[in-house]
Design brief:
Radius of gyration: 11 Å
Mean pLDDT: 93
Number of strands: 0
Largest sheet: none
Number of domains: 1
């Protein structure tokens, strides 16, 4: 089922932040990873 734009953005950001926290990274979120997640959405 295709996601609506807003729901897709929310899902991508949720996954990106979750990965960032689980890997205990510091600094800004990865733009490259955000693009990859967006393409997979």
């Amino acid at each position: 089922v295709p996601l609506r734009f807003g729901k897709a953005v929310h899902a991508v950001l949720e996954n990106l932040v979750r990965e960032h926290m689980e890997e205990e990274r510091e600094g800004p979120l990865s733009e490259d990873r955000a693009v990859t997640l967006w393409q997979e959405a």
